[in-house]
Specification:
This protein is α/β, with parallel strands linked by helices and about 240 residues long. The chain is built from 7 helices and 6 strands; from the N terminus they run E-H-E-H-E-H-H-E-H-E-E-H-H. This is VWFA domain-containing protein.
Length: about 240
């Protein structure tokens, strides 16, 4: 299961639309969640609308939060999206097997078994989360909260039974460039998180769309390199419904 978790506080202003980029991610089997970090109680009407549109196009969730709520929100969205992804995959397989994709249409005993399987798969399926951090100048006061959120998310992922990996990107990559930069590659280790933030330039434009596209390319390249298949495909094969 693959996710991009975008943490931002403003509108994109360079390159391809982030809504279009999020739709590309969904087409690649990557869910896009978006957390809008409030600045003095507001991210602006345009910013809030964009955050919602990105998440909807990416098949994920969006939330507007203050820095105190950031860590809890990041964990909640990650876990809830996992369960939604599993449930959709299970319903797809039920439709293929039974001709009916509705869990509610099953007899009560079978329905309970499917719900148990969904819970189990949510904890055991491999999960990859790519964090994409807006490093525009206005995010500077919020970086400590972002760092704490990353640490708490990693601890939460480590508590899962299944393999969990996290990688971290920030954007823009430089004062004059549109690209994003990978700060930490796939890891399940907290080492190195603190070293990211003092180095961030915290200036420049907000190329949210190009940054999303680069993370999608990273997922695609890694998938080809490792020869991974979509692990949500056929996830019910070991269970009898």
């Amino acid at each position: 299961m693959k996710q991009i978790l975008l943490i931002t506080d403003g509108c994109s202003n360079v390159g391809v639309s982030p809504v279009v980029a999020a739709a590309h991610a969904k087409g690649e089997g990557i869910v896009v969640n978006v957390v809008g970090v409030l600045d003095y109680g507001d991210v602006g009407e345009l910013g809030a609308a964009e955050i919602d549109e990105i998440a909807r196009a990416g098949g994920g969730m969006s939330r507007l939060v203050n820095t105190r709520q950031l860590s809890q929100t990041v964990q909640m969205m990650t876990r809830k999206t996992v369960m939604q992804t599993v449930q959709l995959a299970v319903q797809k397989e039920l439709k293929q097997v039974l001709g009916n994709g509705s869990i509610e249409a099953l007899p009560p005993d079978k329905r309970g078994e499917v719900v148990r399987v969904i819970d189990e798969l949510g904890e055991t399926q491999k999960l990859q989360v790519a964090l994409l951090i807006d490093a525009s100048a206005s995010m500077k006061p919020k970086l400590q909260a972002v760092e704490e959120a990353i640490r708490d998310l990693m601890l939460s992922l480590q508590a899962r039974q299944g393999e969990s990996e996290l990688c971290v990107f920030h954007f823009p990559g430089s004062r004059y460039g549109d690209e994003c930069v990978m700060d930490i590659g796939w890891t399940s280790d907290l080492t190195g998180v603190s070293a990211i933030f003092p180095k961030l330039p915290m200036s420049g434009t907000t190329p949210t769309g190009p940054a999303l596209m680069q993370v999608i390319d990273f997922y695609r390249t890694e998938s080809y390199r490792k020869g991974n298949r979509d692990e949500t495909d056929g996830m019910m094969s070991d269970y009898v419904v």
